[in-house]
Every structure is written in structure tokens, then in C-alpha cells.
Amino acid sequence: MSKTEQTAPGATPPRTSAVVTGQDAARVAFAAFVGTALEWYDYFLFGTAAALVFNRLYFTTLDPAAATLAAFATFGVGFAARPIGALAFGWLGDRVGRRPALLITVVMIGVATGLIGVLPSYAAIGVAAPLLLVLLRLLQGIAVGGEWGGAVTLAVEHAPPEKRGRYAALPQVGSPVGTLLSSGAFALVLLLPSDTFDSWGWRLPFLAAFPLLAIAVYIRRKVEESPLFDEMLKQDERAKVPALDVFRQAWGRLLVAMASATLGVGGFYLLTTFMISYGADTLGLSRSLMVNGTLVAAVTEIAVILAMGRMAERFGPGRVTVWGGLLTALLAFPVFWLVETKNPVVVVLAMAVGIGALSVAYAVSGALLAELFPARLRYSGVALAYNLAGALTGFLPFLASALLGAFDGASWPVVLLLIGLSLLTALGGFLGERMRVRDNVVTV
């Protein structure tokens, strides 16, 4: 039996300890992983479609370059909406419970994604088409704004403190699995003739969100409430307005958490959403090759995340974050140089190496962010940090495309952007390791 005490500015330690077990932790973390994978599948579909479809079907009155920028801007709208979801579901998760918040988020994103699959194109309903596309993207963003923070919080709070690294990494695996599912779905429909793909083939991955939603709801209903939240509920130690307390009492922690999460969010979309567009539209590579590159990269990411989760338990998630930031900064130029060789094998290898490097920091982001905030503010703190970082970096594919046009197709400004993100994340990891809190938990 082990016991640790919660210590954090503005936090009142519970009078009794919450009890956690390794068996419960594994079951809850797996459920969080499955639900998160299905949610990221829904969310990532939009990114791939923005690079391949939306510019041609929903922004047809614009020239090709402007249409691509408009599609990426719509993609970024989802990130801008995520802090709204963090505020709403953070309040729900810290006041009512982690579990009900996660049930609502999965329904919201599943319905929004499925409806994109039946949305008429610009040719059918005119300007209403891109407006409705933006609305559905907003709903996706609000839902995801509450999803990831809740999944990580629930996994961490069910886990013994000395094993939080591995269990917090499981929801992170949901991201590459979601990438595999979404990219795999698009890889299959891209085998259809071009006219068929544009007509209805691209809709099939979105329509698959409806049956996947049923699976996600079934899984989420079986997840137990956090033992730490149950203890806070018994002792009435919940924050009245959690987000307000985060900004008042833990704003420094919020900034550090945002910095540490920046690479895992923004860098990922530079090397997937933007890279697909860059390879297909600027370098003239096939769309199938670029999508398949994300598939190989996702497999690499899964292996890195699982390994780094264990490393976080030994060295601390902040230190591992520093390693990931520095490694990505060192590899940024080589990754783009390799893609620009246009050799198919080298292009796929470069995408795998780049995403594998930034996954070192992403793997431990859940563990680090959760331990930067006391339990009474955790759902809100984690959700706000992650999604404010997402809001600031969600428009990076748009910015990268604009830089590409401004510098006559040269990639070096985009590479410098990636390096800047990497160094910011390394700084966040360095500071975050020194600010971690401990919970009042008994392991049996």
C-alpha cells in the first residue's frame, strides 16, 4: 500500500485518501483509449478531407490556392471552438463528474461528423454548403474540447501514482489509431475513380461515424467515475467555477501546460494535414502516397507513445517532453529535405521519422498536464491548456500554406515554424517537471 499527498498552490488536500487499484486503472485506461480513438477518427477525417476534397467541393468559386486556404481555415475553426468546449465540459467534469461529460462529448462529435457525410456540396445548395460545413466543424471542436482532457483525467485518477505514465499514454494512443482509421478509410475510397470519389466516395468515412458512435457510447457507459472525484463530492471540495479558479490560482501552470502541449498539437498537423497538401499540390506527389505516409507514421507513433509512457514513469514526463522537443527541432530540416526528394519510399520514411519524433513529447503530455493541476481543477485545467494550445496552433496548416505562397514554394519558413514549436514545448517540459503535484491516493 502506498500513499502520496497532494501539494499545489491553491489546493486543499482531501481529509481522506481515494483508493485506486491497478486492475481498475487498466480497464478504465483501455476504455478511455477506445473512446478517444473513435473521437479522433471523427476529428481527423476533417483534416484529410480539407486537404483533398473540401477545397474543390465547398469553395468552388475560389481559385485553387485560395480554395485550399479556405478549406484549411475551416479546419482551423474547429480548434478555435475547442476552448469553448474546454470551459463548458471542464465545468461539467469538475462539478458534476468526469463520466457524464465524456458521454456527452462522444455523442456530439459522432453526430456532427456523420452529418458532414450527408452535407450537400456548393453546387447543390450554394453558399449554405460552406456555412453548414463551418457549423459542423464548430460542433466537432466544442466536443473535442471536452473529450481529451476528460479521458486523460479519468485514466490518471484511476491509476496508481507510480504507474500513471503508462495509463496516461493509452488515451494518447487513441490519436494515431484515429489517424490509422481515418487515413485508412480515405486510402480505401481513394481507390475509387476520381468522379466517384468526388460524387459520393469521400462521404463514406464520415457516414461510418454513426455506427462507431454506438460503439463509443456503449464503452463510455461502462466507465466508472473517478475515485478522486467521488472523494471530492463526499467532502464538497469542488470548485464553484473551476475555469475561473484556474485563471486566478494556477495561471502560471496553465501557461506551462500550454507550452508543453504545443508541439503535440500544432506540429502534428504540420506534418499531416499540411504535409499532405504540400506533397500533393506543390511537389506533385500522389494523394494516395501522402495519405499512406500518414498510415506508416501512425504505426510508428503508437510504438513511440507506448515506450515513452514507461520512460515517463522512470524519468518524469517533463524530462521526456524536453527530449521530444529538442529531437523534433533537430530533425525538422532533414524531414522536409527528404520529402522534397519525391522518392516514394523516402517520403514515407521522412513522415514516419518526423511524426515519431514529435510523438515523444505527445506521449507524455497527458501525464504531465494532469499532474500540473490539483484534482479539484484538473479537468478544467487540462482541457483549457490543451485546447488553448490547439486554438493557437490549429491555423498552422493555413499559416504554413500562406508562407509557402509568400516565399514562392520554399519550405524553409515552415520548417522554422516547426522548430519554434519544438523549442517552446521543450521549455514547457523543463518548467513543468518542477511544478508537478501529487494526489492523496492509496494504492491497494
TrEMBL record:
InterPro entries associated with the record: MFS (IPR011701), MFS_dom (IPR020846), MFS_trans_sf (IPR036259), Sugar_transporter_CS (IPR005829)
Record-annotated Major facilitator superfamily (MFS) profile domain positions: 28-437
Subcellular location: Cell membrane
Taxonomic superkingdom: Bacteria
Bilayer topology annotation: Multi-pass membrane protein
The keyword Membrane appears for this protein: yes
Transmembrane stretches, start-end: 40-59, 65-89, 101-125, 131-156, 177-194, 200-219, 254-277, 289-308, 320-339, 345-370, 382-404, 410-431
Gene3D superfamilies in UniProt: MFS general substrate transporter like domains (1.20.1250.20)
Alphabetical keyword list: Cell membrane, Membrane, Transmembrane, Transmembrane helix, Transport
Name of the featured protein: MFS transporter
